[in-house]
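User: My instructor asked us to take a sequence, write out its structure as C-alpha cells, and then describe one feature of it. I'm not sure where to start. Here is the sequence I was given:
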Amino acid sequence: MSAVQYLVACWEQHVKFEKQDTGSVFAGRTRLRGIILASSGSAGSVTLQDGNSVTQFQVDVPAGDVFAYNLAEDGILFEGGMTISAISNATVTVIIDK
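Assistant: Let's start with the prediction itself. The C-alpha cells for your sequence are:
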C-alpha cells in the first residue's frame, strides 16, 4: 500500500463538517479526532457540547489566526451527539468518526 493509499484509507473512516453558527454537528455517538479553527477577523471562541449539554471542548481563536489540531489517541468522546453551543467570530471544521 502506498503512502497516498494509506492516507485515503485512514480518512475514509472520518468525516468533516464546517460550521459558522450554533447547532447540531452530528446526532449520534462520535469522537472528535481533529479541529481546524479560523478567525473571521477579530478574536473569537468555539464551544462544543455532547448530547447531555456537557462542554467537552472549548477554545479561543486569536484574531487573524488559523490553526489545526489533531487530538491524540482516541480523541474526545461525545455521547449522544455533538453540538456547537457557542461560536463567535470563527469558522470551525470538525473531523469526527463516522
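For the description part of your assignment, you could build on this observation: The helical segments are 3-11. Try explaining in your own words what that tells you about the chain.
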